[in-house]
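User: hey, got a sec? need DUF6265 family protein folded
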Amino acid sequence: MRFGRSLIAFSLVITGTFAQAGNATDINHVAWLSGCWQLDGQPPGSGEQWSTLAGDTMLGTSRSLQAHRTASFEFMLLRQHDDGRLVLTALPSGRNATEFNATRVDANEAVFENPDNDFPQRIRYQRIDDQRAWARIDIAREDPAQSADFPMHRVRCSETEPSR
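Assistant: Yep! Here you go:
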């Protein structure tokens, strides 16, 4: 399955330590994603929006606009499973869900991987500071030709709506 260039995320990009058993993949580490994010250099309304953390779950959406129309969209779910796994589930542009397991998580970065997916195989969210973040989608081996970066900045959620 191929993802549109709207991500995430935020689908979404964090650097940290390798996840280990226990709280190394604690969803509380990514609660900073909560709120609205505008993609840098893109039309207003292009970006991600994440719910607050509740019930070990965060819900997210992303959207990219071109010529005042939605070019791509995605529904996302960040969930801490009972077995301790932190999983990012992505549903791009109405297609089937794909799960990405957290492989590294800390207070400033989260990395999710699914080596069986064609593209992306890895999704990263990184907090630059309280107002800026960076997301990247790529394949598991480093190949700049098969990656996309999504720098973004925090906005009030009312600012994510494009003007009419």
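Quick note: DSSP finds no helices and eleven strands in the chain. Let me know if you need anything else on DUF6265 family protein.
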